[in-house]
Amino acid sequence: VIEQGQPEHSVITTCAYCGVGCSFKAEMKGDQLVRMTPWKGGQANHGHACVKGRFAFGYATHKDRLTKPMIRDAIDQPWREVEWEEAIGFAARRLREVQQQHGTHSVGGITSSRCTNEETYLVQKLVRAALGTNNTDTCARVCHSPTGYGLKMTLGESAGTQDFDSVLQSDCILVIGANPTDAHPVFGSLLRKRLRQGAQLIVADPRHIDLLDTPHTAEPLHLPLRPGANVALVNALAHVIVTEGLEDKEFIAGRCSPEEYAAWREFIADPGHAPEVMSAVIGAPAERIRDAARLYAGAGNGAIYYGLGVTEHSQGSTTVMGIANLAMATGNIGRPGVGVNPLRGQNNVQGSCDMGSFPHELPGYQPVTDAAVRASFEQAWGVELHGEPGLRIPGMFDAAIEGRFKAMYVQGEDIAQSDPNTQHVEAALRSLDLLIVQDIFLNETAKFAHVILPGSTFLEKNGTFTNAERRINRVRKVMPPLAGKEDWQVTQELAQALGYPMHYEHPSEIMAEIASVTPSFAGVSYPRLEELGSIQWPCNDQHPSGMPVMHGDSFPIGLGRMVVTEFMPTSEKVSEAFPLLLTTGRILSQYNVGAQTRRTENNVWHGEDVLEIHPHDAAARGIQDGQPVTIASRTGNTVLRAEHSQRMQPGVVYTTFHFPHSGANVITTDNSDWATNCPEYKVTAVQVSGTSDR
Ligand code: SF4
């Protein structure tokens, strides 16, 4: 129960919203949560917090919370409330029936970046060890999978290089495709602090974001690039660095693979990458691109921070590798104040990737195709493991429509609302013989489910989250789970019902197992977390207290790999019928699909998704400020209220996806990153026209 009153005691825990991972004191009166107070001892936030973490926790006791398991034989039948044992038994029996009828690999599971490391680890373990398939994936697929791929290919580790506090030693900060003051507010404030101290800011973004208006700073440099032009931009920046002699030759000679550097240098020196040639494609003036390259390369410490505006493109992985190229070419790696820093979206998106959620990697990014790796897990888990990578989420959808994939266990992700091309996703979900949804609310995905297993919020469980700076923070139970079980207990019971033994008494035992099979977590344990407060992995014999800044003397792959990053324009192009480009993002007071923020009783959280449109584009279509408009793409259409905005550049419109009615993903396309299938949410050609139909 959450009520007002004077607190009597408190529990230190971690925010369940964004990848900053702020620590809070959950202040209690008896078993009632009175308030969430940012904790000064928090090593990611030092006592700061944003409006979401501080005030948006009312959803935890909202009347919509699921408290009873439910089952049904078909999605057109009514739900039947049952006891846990019956629901879990039903789910396990149906999973086995599907496997008997359609084969071992006709089933799969999706882990959640909202759940703890321990819970995520158990879901992928259930899929691999109990179901015998590598058909496991995570919602990171639709956000930062290109980060995992791109950073591993270039720097050898699928994670950001720095701690957040490192930004206070940056001289030039390049922000690409991220809006930290809205999406990562506490880090956004830290960044602003450094800007007020005199650091230079460069922003590459189609919109004029708030960071550009930070008071009392040096003149920021905005590159208002066109959605889809990221690779062209990072190549143009690199071209200037190479052709104007701005490289850090000593770093390159000592730390980078000479063959790959030579190939990259020859590629990037080609005049076709020059800002003067690519300016029209990029959408920013050539001289401004040159200035940006000179500022970044010439600064003592140059740091790059990027977000989903980099990853959610058909060339998301290429851009991530291009960013790593920039950092290596200028020697901006391996010390405080520099680095390549993905701003992770969800509270535990880093952790869900670390824990082996991807179909090709076991925990710690260890390949399933490596027999020695498999052998160590086979010994620990007591089963023989499949050696072929499984299906990614889009592959599961396609296989479901083709009749090859028949059952799915989804923990804590609303794929029907959050994944692109809603029509395709719904068709896939409708094709399943069995959909098991474990969530705190009856979400959009649950409409297609046969089993509902009530989930638990971060207030109701023990565990850990890993934030965007690889910091493992403790999550501590504040109140008993509303439905009687923590998520890891539900997964454990499902594994047991499938006949696979799992007998953990506490998440600390799961972490002990994670440490035993994951070299980068070898030194992580609950007692060590208590002692140190938090730990930034890798934590092992070489780094017993963790590692705030990675790649100081060498890369995990030895020499850094500079990769040729060919610009391939997206197939999603404007045309006479669809003359504008739509891109998407978030606002400060809402979070992703809004399942939590929309269920917090406070006026701050009310609102709607709107379409931001430049006044010139609005005038050309006779669209008034506030008027409902139809947004049509090649995939579908939806209706939103228009908002005239000077933040937009002409030709580009913008919306958020926090409310189910907005239908943002009805109009996004099937395009995805070539390497990881991360959807291209950020580029959709649309037509916008006035309507009275709302
Ligand atoms: Fe929570 Fe992120 Fe806000 Fe911190 S910045 S309070 S982690 S939403």
UniProtKB/TrEMBL annotation:
GO biological process assignments: formate metabolic process; respiratory electron transport chain
Keyword flag Nucleus: no
Domain 4Fe-4S Mo/W bis-MGD-type, first and last residues per copy: 8-64
Superkingdom per UniProt: Bacteria
Keyword Oxidoreductase: yes
GO function terms (MF aspect): 2 iron, 2 sulfur cluster binding; 4 iron, 4 sulfur cluster binding; formate dehydrogenase (NAD+) activity; metal ion binding; molybdopterin cofactor binding; NADH dehydrogenase activity
Protein keywords: 2Fe-2S, 4Fe-4S, Iron, Iron-sulfur, Metal-binding, Oxidoreductase, Repeat
Gene Ontology annotations for the cellular component aspect, listed alphabetically: membrane; oxidoreductase complex
UniProt record similarity statement: In the C-terminal section; belongs to the prokaryotic molybdopterin-containing oxidoreductase family. Belongs to the complex I 75 kDa subunit family.
Protein name: Formate dehydrogenase major subunit
